[in-house]
Amino acid sequence: xxxxxxxxxxxxxxxxxxxxxxxxxxxxxxxxxxxxxxxxxxxxxxxxxxxxxxxxxxxxxxxxxxxxxxxxxxxxxxxxxxxxxxxxxxxxxxxxxxxxxxxxxxxxxxxxxxxxxxxxxxxxxxxxxxxxxxxxxxxxxxxxxxxxxxxxxxxxxxxxxxxxxxxxxxxxxxxxxxxxx
Length: 181
Description:
It is a single chain. This protein is an all-alpha fold. Helix 4 (about 115-140) runs antiparallel to helix 5. The chain has a domain at about 55-175. The protein is built from 5 helices and 2 strands.
């Protein structure tokens, strides 16, 4: 005859067993911990969709933009001019230099992957911005209180869109110069 199983003494804690629910909770807890470790370690990091793979083109573009921004920087800042006509003239001269920069950036376009398509769209944004500058100077010559108005894209002012693309691609000099005020 088998010996009877020892019974728990009164006041002893009940024996702990691994139930299906307890095992599932431990597995879910470990999975969540591993997920956050992966997230914070940079596991899902991917390049921005606007990142250009043709880094040689990026280097040439940065140099081109740096030269143009230096030329614009040698002009008086628009807000330092006394009369609206002078201000319009300064902004127009700077815009002419920026238009030449945009033309140079388009020749040649990058030749890797989707880079040419991305750069064409970005240069189109630049042309919109330059058109906004020309519109401002035209209105400023008629109304001394005219304001610099920017088109929007993706619910952001066009200069922000241009700057973001430049930042994503390490082309800080290729952001709008902020000379209008």
